[in-house]
């Protein structure tokens, strides 16, 4: 049954109150025109959710919604209290209400700044919190109505639109990214093994490039970190891939150690022709193993390559749900046993007759040990891939942070054989912590402990960069919002949309100065490009919606290319925001203001916000990325000094062993912080002259190489500490060598921080290393072979590792010294061209002098250094230094090598004369260094 339509008193049909389909756009437009904020909030919600995977989209949407709900709750609480201060705001707004709302905005800005600096993932929620707070608290000056619908509905609509687009159009999942990352890591690992096999087969000491495998390891680590918070759809849980990622990091460490040995070897060889490597004499000089053992090494590496190809197929089968490809574990394990047995035979059957053969044996043992460690890593990789137990069907995998982690513990126990009991390093730390706590309680009273606690808390707050950033963020927001709380200025403040300046300052106020300049430049480019593009689109469309939509599709594709580019992502986002803001005024809000006024208003508010943000960032607690980078590198060297000192004294003070893990973590953390600050130094303006970006990159990489040589794979048990505990010969000289390396670390750290020149003499570690070699050789000749209990005492891999460490320290000294010469600044009377004279005057002679008079004992030490420069890079002459500097080596005639190894049995110097020999080394090193510098000039 139908109802009759209503009629008017004159008998005509009354107009229907139902909304007709044709009237829907006009009603919607009128509703939107009544509150322009809604359209802007929808646009912000859409473009502040850029992500790639479905799980990441859900996580970022949840973070944004949490920020919106929290901000609405906070704003309504502030308005409720402000209404209790003054409710009637139609005629006059009291000073108390204004001050309270401004203070509320400052408190919100301080909390947002601290959380934004502390938690990187909260960036989106913090931005939404501040956007809602600034609009609501400024409009709440003369409006006592609580806020909800004006913000929550547009934000939710924008969130739903972005989620729908992410789910429908080319959806991406974290499981597929994990699969591609694992396959990429396996491919790069296989290439590393192939490069090692190729170099050993040709006998060429070639360094292996680790840039690709390092990028693959970072990509896999990033995927696993994102899996901690994202929901994914896959047959494989991310926990099962964590052991493989750990093995990949161990492989990179071993390759770094291998490259250090190759660098030391290459620095002691003469420049060889690269035109015909196979015909060049001496290229196969690196092969000091027997032919039988070389065949074993080649077969083991070939088997490892085949195993890794099987692992690639196994990973594809696991993710596809197919029959698993078998991996030949037993054959590879037999190859490892044969490799270890062959290496033991090599050590047992060789004869060391002179100094040169000892150097060759040290290099060979170090090389064989590193290759065996790499093969052990490949074996652990096979176990990590083999234990992956996929589901029969694709399932929903929840974030790792929401689970207990039992799957990861079970996977690690299957690979490394760990039990539920605590490890040795954990037991050391617990015992040391208990002893220190007991001593602390006995030595202090309750009042002293309270004072110590308060002092530590205040000191940490004083040094906290998060609090400093929160203060800067608060000052910038309050400066830009302050005009709205003066008299009736909130009227023109809202008309000019000055909140856009606050948004610009909020986005541009990065944690570092360099990134702030970079973001400010990108926002300027993006806002100008987006606003100008929208202005041209409106003018070209002549008010036709269809034409504007068609042109917007083309613009959207171009902007999407910018957003997907990591370098120009922020520029693309700002371009999209500016385009939609200006285009919305030109199409929907045409009656309020012309398009030219909207474009001009956007261009005026942007420089104001950026200028305030940059001025506050440069004047209030300035954070210099370059200074912090240098400080981080110096701090890492200091912690390495502490680590070497603890290793040196670990036998006398065993409680220091509990600090190994902490010291290694501090050193690695400082280097990681310095590397993370590298991009910010690109865009940082400085008055101190040239900034050698590549030089600092090499210094950071060299410090990482030194850490790997000292630590190895296990931070709680460094390799040098293990060697020190198992050594039975030459303990005093080994301890002296570690002490000299500690001194080198302190000198390098001080030189890097103070930007001074390195000492003109060579490192004392060079002479101490030579003493250690001679002592080992003397003890070898004085001990009969039948009295040597095991083959481990004839394995000189520890000697090779120490020689590599001395070599890398020498390279680090040279890099820091060249950094000082490269960053000479024309200030305080030092002109730019004087850096050339400073380079010449660093030698042992006067500036401009081409000849020097050798000091007493210098000729003897020069001959000894030339005699020992076959494997040790710090003991090299002028030609080798020229080769290392990259200059062409001149033909200076045949060099007479002083052979003193033949008389070493009867004429070995007394190793107890440490002070005299050290002085002679310094004099000879200074004289030789002076001649080398003169030759280079």
Automatic annotation (TrEMBL):
Keywords: Membrane, Transmembrane, Transmembrane helix. Residues 149-286 form the Putative ER transporter 6TM N-terminal domain. It is found in: Membrane. The chain crosses the membrane at residues 62-83, 95-115, 122-139, 151-170, 469-490, 524-541, 547-565, 577-597. Residues 844-854 have a biased composition (Low complexity). InterPro entries: ArAE_2_N (IPR018823), IVT-Associated (IPR052430). Its main location: membrane. This is Putative ER transporter 6TM N-terminal domain-containing protein. It comes from Ascodesmis nigricans.
């Amino acid at each position: 049954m139908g109802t009759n339509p209503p009629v008017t008193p004159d008998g005509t049909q009354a107009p229907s109150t139902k909304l007709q389909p044709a009237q829907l756009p006009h009603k919607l437009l009128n509703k939107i025109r009544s509150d322009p904020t809604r359209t802007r909030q929808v646009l912000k919600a859409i473009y502040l959710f850029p992500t790639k995977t479905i799980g990441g989209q859900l996580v970022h949407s949840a973070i944004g919604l949490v920020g919106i709900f929290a901000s609405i709750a906070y704003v309504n609480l502030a308005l409720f209290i402000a209404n209790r201060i003054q409710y009637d705001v139609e005629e006059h707004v009291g000073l108390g209400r204004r001050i309270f709302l401004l203070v509320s905005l400052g408190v919100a800005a301080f909390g947002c700044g601290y959380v934004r600096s502390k938690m990187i993932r909260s960036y989106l929620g913090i931005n939404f919190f501040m956007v809602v707070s600034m609009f609501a608290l400024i409009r709440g000056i003369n409006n006592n109505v609580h806020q909800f619908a004006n913000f929550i509905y547009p934000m939710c609509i924008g969130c739903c639109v972005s989620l729908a687009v992410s789910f429908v159009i080319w959806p991406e999942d974290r499981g597929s990214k994990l699969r591609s990352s694992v396959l990429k890591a396996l491919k790069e690992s296989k290439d590393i093994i192939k490069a090692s096999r190729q170099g050993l087969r040709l006998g060429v000491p070639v360094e292996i490039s680790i840039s690709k495998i390092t990028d693959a390891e970072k990509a896999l680590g990033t995927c696993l970190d994102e899996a901690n918070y994202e929901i994914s759809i896959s047959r494989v849980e991310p926990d099962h891939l964590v052991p493989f990622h750990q093995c990949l990091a161990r492989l990179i460490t071993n390759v770094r150690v291998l490259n250090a040995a190759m660098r030391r070897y290459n620095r002691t060889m003469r420049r060889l022709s690269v035109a015909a490597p196979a015909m060049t004499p001496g290229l196969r000089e690196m092969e000091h193993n027997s032919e039988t053992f070389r065949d074993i090494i080649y077969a083991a590496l070939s088997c490892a390559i085949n195993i890794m190809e099987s692992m690639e197929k196994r990973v594809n089968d696991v993710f596809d749900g197919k029959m698993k490809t078998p991996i030949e574990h037993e054959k590879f394990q037999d190859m490892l046993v044969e490799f270890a047995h062959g290496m033991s035979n090599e050590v047992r059957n060789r004869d060391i007759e002179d100094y040169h053969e000892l150097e060759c044996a040290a290099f060979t043992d170090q090389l064989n040990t590193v290759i065996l460690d790499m093969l052990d890593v490949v074996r652990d990789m096979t176990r990590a891939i083999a234990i992956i137990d996929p589901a029969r069907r694709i399932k929903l995998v929840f974030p790792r942070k929401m689970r207990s982690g039992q799957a990861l513990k079970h996977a690690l126990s299957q690979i490394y054989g760990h039990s539920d009991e605590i490890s040795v390093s954990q037991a050391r730390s617990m015992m040391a912590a208990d002893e220190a706590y007991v001593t602390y309680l006995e030595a202090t009273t309750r009042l002293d402990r309270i004072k110590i606690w308060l002092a530590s808390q205040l000191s940490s707050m004083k040094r906290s960069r998060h609090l400093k950033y929160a203060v800067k963020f608060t000052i910038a927001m309050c400066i830009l919002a302050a005009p709205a709380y003066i008299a009736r200025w909130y009227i023109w403040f809202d008309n000019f949309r000055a909140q856009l300046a606050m948004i610009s300052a909020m986005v541009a106020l990065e944690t570092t100065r360099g990134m702030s300049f970079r973001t400010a430049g990108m926002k300027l480019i993006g806002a100008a490009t987006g606003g100008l593009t929208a202005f041209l689109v409106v003018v070209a469309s002549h008010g036709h919606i269809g034409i504007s939509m068609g042109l917007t599709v083309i613009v959207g594709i171009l902007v999407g290319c910018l957003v997907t580019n990591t370098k120009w992502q922020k520029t693309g986002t700002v371009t999209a925001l500016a385009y939609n803001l200006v285009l919305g005024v030109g199409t929907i809000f045409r009656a309020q203001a012309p398009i030219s006024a909207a474009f001009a208003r956007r261009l005026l508010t942007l420089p104001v916000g950026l200028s305030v943000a940059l001025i506050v960032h440069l004047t209030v607690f300035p954070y210099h990325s370059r200074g912090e980078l240098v400080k981080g590198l110096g701090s890492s060297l200091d912690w390495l000094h502490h680590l070497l000192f603890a290793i040196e004294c670990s036998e006398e003070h065993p409680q220091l062993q509990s600090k190994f893990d902490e010291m290694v973590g501090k050193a690695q953390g400082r280097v990681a912080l310095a590397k993370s600050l590298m991009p910010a130094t690109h865009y940082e303006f400085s008055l101190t002259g040239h900034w050698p970006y590549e030089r600092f990159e090499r210094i950071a990489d060299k410090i990482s190489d030194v850490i790997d040589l000292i630590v190895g794979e296990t931070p709680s048990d460094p390799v040098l500490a293990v060697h020190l505990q198992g050594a039975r010969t030459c303990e005093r000289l080994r301890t002296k060598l570690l002490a000299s390396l500690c001194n080198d670390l302190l000198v390098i750290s001080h030189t890097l921080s103070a930007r001074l020149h390195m000492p003109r003499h060579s490192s004392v570690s060079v002479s101490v290393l030579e003493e250690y070699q001679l002592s080992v050789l003397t003890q070898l000749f004085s001990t009969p072979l039948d009295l040597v209990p095991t083959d481990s005492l004839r394995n000189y891999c520890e000697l090779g590792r120490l020689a590599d460490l001395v070599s890398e320290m020498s390279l680090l000294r040279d890099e820091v010294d060249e950094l000082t010469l490269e960053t000479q600044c024309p200030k305080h009377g030092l002109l730019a061209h004087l850096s050339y004279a400073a380079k010449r005057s660093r030698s042992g002679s006067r500036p401009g002098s081409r000849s020097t008079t050798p000091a007493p004992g210098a000729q003897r030490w020069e001959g000894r250094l030339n005699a020992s420069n076959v494997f040790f890079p710090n003991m090299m002459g002028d030609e080798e230094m020229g080769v290392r500097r990259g200059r062409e080596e001149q033909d200076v005639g045949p060099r007479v090598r002083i052979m003193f190894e033949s008389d070493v049995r009867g004429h070995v110097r007394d190793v107890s004369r440490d002070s005299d020999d050290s002085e002679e080394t310094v004099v000879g090193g200074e004289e030789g260094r002076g001649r080398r510098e003169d030759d280079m000039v």
